[in-house]
Amino acid sequence: MLNSAVRRDDLAAETTCEVYELGTLRREPPERHDDLTSRQIAIGRLLATGLKDAAVARELGLSLRTVRSEISAMVATLGARSRFQAGCLLTRRYG
Question: Among 43, 71, 76, 78, which residue's beta carbon has the most beta carbons within 10 A?
Answer without folding.
Answer: 43
